[in-house]
Design a protein that fits this description.
The protein is α+β, with helices and mostly antiparallel strands. It has four helices and 21 strands. 26% of the residues lie in helices and 42% in strands.
Amino acid sequence: MKKYFRFFILALIALVFIGTFVYLYKKSRPKEVKYEQLKPAVKNIKRTTVITGNIVPRDEVNIKPQISGIISDLYKKAGEDVKAGEIIAKVKVIPEMSSLSSAQSRVRLAEINLKQAKTDYGREKSLYDQNLVSSDEFDKISQTLDQANEEYDASVDALEVVRDGVSKSNANSSSTLIRSTISGLILDVPVKVGNSVIQSNTFNDGTTIATVADMNDLIFDGNIDETDVGRLDEGMNMNITIGALQDLKFNAKLEYISPKAAENNGTNQFEIKAAVTVPKGTMIRSGYSANAEIILQHADSVLSVPESAIEFSGDSSFVYVMQADSTYKRRSVKTGLSDGVNIEIKSGVTSKDKLRGNKIIKEK
């Protein structure tokens, strides 16, 4: 039994030794090197850049109150269309006590003056009817009564404005009724009934009642690196792709390039804006993230080869051209525009030449 076990161990050792020898022999054999064959082809080459940004309305207006108070009614909500002058909300005024007291005092004083003016007018009218006073005297008394009436009406209006924010004489143009200043879509209504709001003043921007924008006039707002901004010109066409709508692509025309750079993550970038042409029936929401592809340079119908076939040495470029004996000879070429995959060949080879491409390594 021990004899058979010894033979088995020896056979196993011999098998491992032979296997190791065969593996090392295969690894030591030279590898056959071959190359892909390439032929120059006529193509359109474009150098493009992709700019990230957002789709936003050209005009977005914040509607603010002209008087401070509390929201008593909301007549519109986000997502609804609104016309210029249409009422969005109503504000209930909370009067300041000192102003209210002053207005009430003015009404009481105007009421006393009016009562006295009516009494004087009645007496003067009786005397005038008896031809006991002149027309001039009677006219002065009549004028005093008219002034007292006007002052009383004005004081009542002032009291109503202080107390209610609106008077009967100007109800149609009341500052308590918050109206849209433009026609468009309501993007946001950040207040609720019961919220306090304040009017715009020197120390405060005021409370935004609603944000309204014309969604038929959209722009792409993005930023481009300073290395590419020098190649842009106003009027250039752009292709827009929205991240949320991958199947939708549409055109835009560059209309603004900022004259001043802004630092962003350590790099200088310039703001650009482009007018967007949205297909009819397409719903675009404000703030969509988007990419804009813009062609910086292009060369149409030019001879080109894959850039991997080019050998660069300093300022010179070379390719390897197949000879009659199937060997390759190094040849200088003049290159042009590259899109990162293919590169333009201006001179040095023709469409009939066969070029050496990438290596194909095979074991013999």
